[in-house]
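Write out this protein's structure.
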Amino acid sequence: MQVTPIDFTQNGTKGTLSVETSGTFPGSPAMMHYHLDMENALISSLKITG
């Protein structure tokens, strides 16, 4: 599997990383979005959507 960063946006303590994930699986390549909440320079919450 290969993950390629496409975009990153940040608004205050929230960020979204969009990546293209490709490999030998049905539906490849797939776009995935990592929704991050930051607290004290650490990830306090992570939600992954596709």
